[in-house]
Amino acid sequence: MQPTRRQMMMTAITGAVASVFPVRRLSALAFYGQKSPTPQPLPSPNAPSNTNAPIGLDGADIPVRSGETTVPPATWAEIKSDAQQLLDLATDFKWQVNRASQSNTLPLLLIQEARSIEKLAKKIQGRIKS
User: How far apart are CA 80 and CA 72, in angstroms?
Assistant: First the structure.
């Protein structure tokens, strides 16, 4: 098979370049048909340490607590008394709902008592969180 004009030109150019730059001999394949290797990306400094963990759950920024927090005794006594009051309000509310179930409408006092139960429950929850 005879070489094509392109192959002959590439060989001539390669020979001319090789004669000008004798440090490195270049072949026709250096110019034609070979691809340069693709550069690999550098890892991000913000990349998670564990690539298998879901985003935000790799544990990098989660502070470690040593031991449980203690609740002051005065706060604990208030929580206990409020919990007892909540139980009493809920029991009374249940009794009133059972009594009012005969009619189709709920008394306004029942709705107000439900709101007071909800307020007390949120108050207890706030004390427990702080």
Answer: 12
pLDDT tens track of the chain, all 130 residues? Answer: 677 888 888 887 887 766 666 554 445 445 556 677 888 888 777 776 777 766 666 655 555 566 666 778 888 899 999 999 999 999 999 998 888 766 667 778 888 999 999 999 999 999 888 7
Q: How many CA atoms lie within 13 A of 43 on its CB side?
A: 6
Tell me which residue of 55, 61, 90, 72 sits closest to 127, measured CA to CA: 72
pTM for the full predicted model: 0.46
Judged on CB neighbours under 10 Å (0-12, 13-18, 19+), 18 is middle
